[in-house]
């Protein structure tokens, strides 16, 4: 059967001891202070909730940067335990003897509030996950368009030179082709009697025009042979520039991850554009922050009881023995 202490108070169960440990209470003293046990169980529950929230927040945070579930769980538990340790340290410091001065209390509340704000961010990202993912798609598209414009600006001078060369050489070919066609038409008209002389057949004038036509055609052939390598080179350079830009776009898109920073950026844009979402976002941040501050506020607002008097008495006694020993 379960043993009871000498004052006939029932022995504390394991859950109570765990909650007292969460509340940074001295179990050996608290077990004899029945009036304070329930209050410290409540403080312990608030610390437990804070620890669970912190672990959840850190877990979601690391899930955005790590793929291994075991690593995520280990890191979430470790950093959640770090937050738990900070909370217990703050509560322990509030139990010190003497009057609670303003500056130390304000500093501890500020620290707890800061931790609460940090913890609230991953939880907010988890709650608004669908909206954030939709916004990130728009953000990626906008960033891609901006990147394309920057590439176009960067390569504008080089591409303009290549296009001008192509346009100039193609224009030369078009002009020469038009000239050859004009000479050919004149020659044909001169042979069928519709030309200037009105004679049908190979007259002397027709032969002169034929010579001009054949000469122009040969010049066109030579010009094409001369310009074709240069045209192919410029076209290859334009195609290479396009492929290079496409490769840069792929690399840039691969760098646009769905990580914590990208989600935070999308959340900021959503809250900036949508007033109802902004109001709910602030409300949820406030609630989650209060959850982190709640253990410290509970300890601060709770009046001193028998347990606190015994702790203060023990501290004074230990200090007295230490001074006498010196």
Descriptive report:
It is a single chain. This protein has 326 residues and is mainly α. The chain is built from ten helices and no strands. α4 (69-94) crosses α9 (275-301). The longest helix is centred in the middle third of the chain and has 64 residues, at 129-192. The model is unreliable at 1-7 (pLDDT under 50).
- Quick one: overall form? rod-shaped
Annotation field: number of helices: 10
Alpha carbon gyration radius: 42 Å
Number of strands: 0
Largest sheet: none
What is the averaged pLDDT score? 80
- The percent range for helix content is over 70%
> What fraction of residues sit in β-strands?
under 5%
Low-pLDDT parts are: 1-7
Helix and strand run: HHHHHHHHHH
Structural class: mainly alpha
Rounded to the nearest angstrom, the distance between the terminal CA atoms is 47 Å
Chart the SSEs and their pairings.
Elements (H helix, E strand, L loop, with lengths): L13 H9 L4 H4 L3 H30 L5 H26 L7 H26 L1 H64 L11 H52 L4 H14 L1 H27 L4 H20 L1
